[in-house]
Fold this sequence. Notes:
The complex is a heterotrimer. Chain A is an alpha/beta fold.
Amino acid sequence: MKSxxxxxxxxxxxxxxxxxxxDNLNLSINWRTITTIIGPSGCGKTTLIRTFNRLxxxxxxxxxxxxxxxxxxxxxxxxxxxxxRKVGMVFQRPTPFPNMSIAxxxxxxxxxxxxxxxxxxxxxxxxxxxxxxxxxxxxxxxxTHKGNDLSGGQQQRLCIARTLALHPKLLxxxxxxxxxxxxxxxxxxxxxxxxxxxxTIVLVTHNIPQAKRISDHxxxxxxxxxxxxxxxxxxLLSPKTKEAQEYLLN
Amino acid sequence: MVSKQKLGQSAIKRQRISMMWTIIIITLxxxxxxxxxxxxxxxxxxxxKALTPHFVASPLLAAEREAFATAFIGTAIMMTLATIITxxxxxxxxxxxxxxxxxxxxxxxRLSVDxxxxxxxxxxxxxxxxxxxxxxxxxxxxxxxxxxxIIMMPVSIRSTEEVLKKIPRSLIESALALGVPxxxxxxxxxxxxxxxxxxxxxxxxxxRASGETAPLLLTAxxxxxxxxxxxxxxxxxxxxxxxxxxxxxxxxQAMAWGGALALITVNVIxxxxxxWIGHEK
Amino acid sequence: xxSRLTKIDGIQAKELAFKSALFLAGIFVVSLMGAAIITxxxxxxxxxxxxxxxxxxxxxxxxxxxxxxxxxxVCGTVLVAIGALGIALPVAIAVALLTTVIIKxxxxxxxxxxxxxxxxxxxxxxxGLWGLTTIVPLIRHVQLYYDMPPYxxxxxSALITLAIMSIPFAAALIREVIKTIPNSLIDATYAxxxxxxxxxxxxxxxxxxxxxxxxxxxxxxRALGETMAVSMLIGNVNHIPxxxxxxxxxxxxxxxxxxxxxxxxxYHSSLIVLALVLFxxxxxxxxxxxxxxxxxxxxx
Lengths: 250, 281, 300
């Protein structure tokens, strides 16, 4: 189980308006690990992870060739809605739903999809998800308050909670701590290390020290190519390729 | 080398010029402020004098001219109906403009909104007259409502689009990332989030439409009797003001002021409602 | 662990239905505009073909004699609108400067701005009523002084009232433009020792020039279409006035007073030609003004 790839890309080429953004990418994300994707701004990291849950389908100027598979099954053959419940995504800025209370926000994946739940099921999901992100004790007295009242770090954890409520197999995060203060960011990183025990994680980050602290594997993308990919210690501390050495050891 | 004295003198001269200019500005601004005070004072003073119980409740005050009750009921009916029709259409068009901004239909739609917004209300009245009044040889509250709808729609669409544009894309994408289909994300996340702003904009559109007289003259026409049928002539507050102000009879002029007070009050209420809805936390 | 999934088969159909509803609404709006223009075109056609260029060159608008010319109306419209803007624009600039540059106290600014908002919310017909009560008696005195019949209603009554009506709109626009000037620039100019007058002359006015022009054009477009107050105050005489104390008429005022009684088909059609002209001119001004504002915003 440990070595089984959750997500794999085979010769993935992402095109924006016909021009290749990332060329011939071969990546595999392993079960219950944290994989970090790093690289200079604009190299396509965010677009890459958005292909994992087919959010890029909504942008007509983005297309891709090659294969992306989830547990061996090609994601293009899956219904995108089912895919998105298996691959959860958290964005750079926390986005609690403004018209919902904290409790309603956690359940949003169910209520917005019209999935009926009994009262007991609702309680269970809310408590379970909030406990997983370490928010339960902080907010259990004010579940009816709006998510917007929470601090930035708490809001971001709320976003993870509502994603985890759907029991995805893969959690994808796009620079999740870039809008948080250092203390909240540190709490967040601890959370990710905790979550790694139960779920596979991929994140994009600009923060090399952060990558050093939490990654198991690192993928370095530059100049439209996957330059280096391997265990975190190896890529970050003793990179093999010249470009990686220039980028990381400076 | 300019002497200190000379520098000081030129500074004083510049200050004097600036002071004179400030006085000119304040004087010119007074031209704008006096009418506000005058209108408000006359409206409140004359209007309150006119608002006797007889004035408000009596169904018929003068031959061929509508009573206050007629006008008020007519305005209420037509405005409510016009708002009910305009709101869903402007929400749909607002969503359309935000979801598909580059589609050719949307570009034409924007152009149409621009054109309709700039159209003088009298021209809209003439158009609705040609559509509804001329073929049926009958003025009607329904025609008046249609005219109000055409007047309200561009304003409402514009403000709805502004509100929807302000919603961050990542909020909608968060819903999509939960496996929510696009149309549900719009209905259950985008619209509820924007609803306050949309309602606020609709209040503004309604306040603009409530004061329109010219198009109603050609469509609803006005009637001395209390009218609730949309298929016949209908009264309205601005029509009442117009009809009563034309006379030299002092009593009837006073009634016009009564109608004016009511109309301005309606406007102020709608605009305040718009601010209150839009800014309340 | 709850992981029931909802049925996902109906989703394609619902997405399509929703998308169709959106596009239908858009098409409805476009059709509305199209139908409006076609209606005016069809209505105007008989007069255009029958009267032709006489519509522009003849001097009289006299339905009883079957004489239809737009000239007196166009003259009246242009005179009243431009005259009104001539008064309104400087005042609007003054008010905008007052509430942004001269008065720094936020509270007073807010009160003044609210006052302007109230003024802009007053319907045209109420302005007409006010003009009849306040301005017309004044003009009567002036007319008597010049040995003219003291009708009171006249070009100048309409002009003054229209000016007052145009001020809030223009002032709000100009104020928005002035607000876009970066505070740092203003502060720096003051720090160099400039007086408010110099600051306005060298910084604000050049910066806001195109915004002021756009505001003027938009306000002019609105003034051209203004109906009720003008109609109640101008005297409704369809000739080219010799002086500003005489009565006159504008296109919109004519339309509102004569349209219902125009039974003769040529009369009816001529009125629609006027409506079409008014529509065209105000549309052009409205779009032009807005384009200038967009261009101005993109410049910054």
